[in-house]
Design brief:
Radius of gyration: 24 Å
Helix content: 25-40%
Shape: globular
Order of helices and strands: HHHHEEHEEEEHEHEHEEEHHH
Low-confidence stretches: 264-269, 289-296
Largest sheet: 7 strands, mixed
Number of strands: 11
Strand content: 5-15%
Mean pLDDT: 84
Structural class: alpha/beta
Distance between the termini: 84 Å
Amino acid sequence: CKIGNPFYNTPPYMHYWKSWHDDNYKKVFINYEQGIKEGRYTQEFIEEARMKPHFDILFECKFPEASITEGKWTQLLGRNEVEQSMIDDYILFGEKTIGIDPADTGLCESVIVLRGANVAEIKFANNRIDLMEFTGTCLLTIRDEKIKSNNVFADNIGIGAGLVGRIREQGQAINPVNSQEQATDQKTFVNKRAEAFWKVRDWIKSGGKLKRDDRWFQLCNIYYKADDSSGRMRIMSKDIMASKGISSPDVADALMLTFIAPQRVFSPSIEEREFREMIKRKKQSQGQTRQRVFMQ
């Protein structure tokens, strides 16, 4: 007899998955729908739980599509999900936001990611550029892409503090980010980093696109789990990642920074507004024509 939740479906922790698919075992399947029927759950409770990590595992009783490692760390996005989100040709629309993740020269890259409402692009990534040069690159990108100051976000931890200070010295306003600070939704997320990465996940699963670049597969190296003490969601720290041989996800972090701010209602572009006005005038003109015909 085996009783449990379907957390693991990959070696070496897939013994429960094998048992579930073994015809020699008799299966008893109890998901949240059965719990509602028996009065153990309310629909309101389920709708709240649906917004939290591992709902598919704990309440729908499904084995996860993404891999789960030892310690119940779950992949934020699977490789297929990242691959399917990549596109070659696009027209970026909506307000532009950039995320800046600076690094020392060496293995880590200094990265700038540009994101609109529909697509994100790696504008710059280099592991040999020093802080002064990278400051200039950031300023040029902000100017060339006409980014509003309130849409510029940069990591402010470690070397990031120096970058933020240097950019401000040049007269450019910028939003410094300490991703370890408290999340806006403190009941669900341990810190801002977890909250922002969850927004990245939701955005891609809802149709957000990435300009084709293999470095986006760094998103597959981001793992999350529910905190043991509070049940809030946390992202695997870089120290744990390093202990598992996972390289620093610089591109993924830069994309995450573009989701730090509270989500705003999308504002249509000038072209879209003009198109809507044209359609509106056309309908009004057709209505006036029908009215004249009726009056005759």
